[in-house]
Amino acid sequence: MNNRVVNALAAASVSALLFASFGGSAGAADPAEQVKDRQQTMKKLGGGMGAVAKFVKNEGATAEDAAKGAEAVLAVAAMDPKTIFPQGTAVGVADSAAKPELWQSWSVAQERWSAMKPAAEKLDAAIKGGDRAQIAQALGATSKTCGSCHEDFRVKKQ
Q1: Which of 2, 19, 110, 119 could form a disulfide with 142 if both were Cys (CB 3.0 to 4.6 A apart)?
Q2: Residue 157's pLDDT is what?
Q3: In the predicted model, what is the mean pLDDT of residues 138-146?
Q4: Domain assignment of residue 158, yes or no
């Protein structure tokens, strides 16, 4: 193969990896698809939190499961909220539960989203420390951070 072909294949591979690592939503212009992408991101976050909770409660999850869960929480916390909550994806679009107030109070929402990263970092550090009581405390704080947005910006589940 000549260098041009190799370079083109390498560029295509890197592009595909970047697209996949960002959930494939980088160019999603369809609001219904954006809602679906958001829901997948939130499921990743919830799954991570759930894995840590199962470890804390001694419900069969291992320390490795909890560490992987914390990694998932950290990955979502590091995301830009504008990519997760694009304008035009409120209640009424697909099965979105995001209230219009989210965008009307965007600075508050961003502030709360920003609080998730240090909470997730503390959770990760607690897991690395191995003390279940500290992990439980950090999990509670992280959960509280998530819940503050849900309380104000998500329609309550029936």
Answers
A1: 119
A2: 83
A3: 97
A4: no
Q: Read off the pTM.
A: 0.79
Contact between residue 127 and residue 52 where contact means Cβ atoms under 8 Å apart: yes
Interatomic CA distance for residues 103 and 95, integer angstroms: 17
User: Residue 70: inside a domain, yes or no?
Assistant: yes
Q: Is 78 annotated as a binding residue?
A: no
Query: In the predicted model, is pLDDT for residue 33 greater than 60?
Result: yes
Residue 146 known to bind ligand: yes
Domain span holding position 148: 26-153
Q: What is the CATH number of the domain that holds 102?
A: 1.20.120.10
Q: What is the rounded CA–CA span in Å between residue 24 and residue 72?
A: 16
Look up residue 158 and give its amino acid.
Q
Q: Is residue 3 in a domain?
A: no
**What is the sign of the dihedral through the CA atoms of 71, 74, 80 and 84?**
positive
Note whether residue 51 is domain-resident: yes
94 is in an annotated binding site: no
Report the candidate in 106, 100, 116 with the shortest Cα–Cα distance to residue 148.
Answer: 116
Kindly report, residue by residue over 9-31, the tens digit of the pLDDT. Answer: 434 443 443 344 444 444 558 99
